[in-house]
Amino acid sequence: MSTIFNHSFNSIVELRHVISILIACACGWAIGYERKARNKQAGVKTHIIVALTSALMMILSKEAFLDTPSYDTSRVAAQIVSGISFIGGGIIFTRDKKVSGITTAAGIWATAGIGMAIGADFWIFGSFCSFIVVLVQLVTHSNGRNHEIYQAKIVLETIDISLLCKIYTNLGTLDFRKYNVELKEQSSNNSYDILISIENDKEISIIDIEDFLLNEDKNIKIKEFKLKNYMKS
């Protein structure tokens, strides 16, 4: 039983650890807030958790094995670098022959490094790097490359399954930036839900879309129609 409490409590050391975690969370929040404002996949929660966990693992790597003879302080910390690649790899994807998410994945990688620096007691250095990451994101986004993206999400109800192909084919004639059409069968009846997602560089007109859909089928039922716009680089 005596081995359970090998680590004596030191209020100064514990306070230092708590401060490190709080600073790491603040840095993660700053980077994540900028990503969330750009409507990116990884937002505030993801970056805070990455920064917090990186700082925590760094603290453990330094101090959790002090009672182990010839311990290697880099063993736990080294796994952060390789482990964060799983998150970064999941963010990057290809759509319409374009690679998306590389900058956000790099931001996750940078956030992990900042958390490690803060966990290693480099508070000012880690905070400065966090400031640089946010500054680079803001400067590059405001360098004349931003433009507004408009999105529309429509849910239709129909009994005609062939309507899916008609809508998808005819949407191509409207010159939208991106569009997608999905079919979902209703379990309660013999009808189907058609989910339409549209993305465009210009504002999407509700009236034009409604006229287009009614032209495909006069009896079509529009269950849901959502519009959204955001800034994108």
Short description:
With 233 residues, this protein is of the alpha+beta class. The chain has helices at 11-37, 44-63, 74-91, 102-119, 123-141, 163-171, 206-216; strands spanning 93-95, 98-100, 147-158, 178-185, 192-200, 221-232.
Describe what this molecule looks like in 3D.
It contains 7 helices and 6 strands. Helix 1 (about 10-35) packs parallel to helix 5, helix 2 (about 45-65) packs antiparallel against helix 3 and helix 2 runs parallel beside helix 4. It has helices at about 10-35, 45-65, 75-90, 100-120, 125-140, 165-170, 205-215, and strands at about 95, 100, 145-160, 180-185, 190-200, 220-230. The protein has about 230 residues and is α+β, with helices and mostly antiparallel strands. Helix content is about 50%, strand content about 20%. It has a 4-stranded antiparallel sheet with strand order 4-5-3-6, with helices on one face. The chain has a two-stranded antiparallel sheet with strand order 1-2. The longest helix has 27 residues, at about 10-35. Residues about 1-5 have low confidence and may be disordered. It is elongated and about 75 Å long.
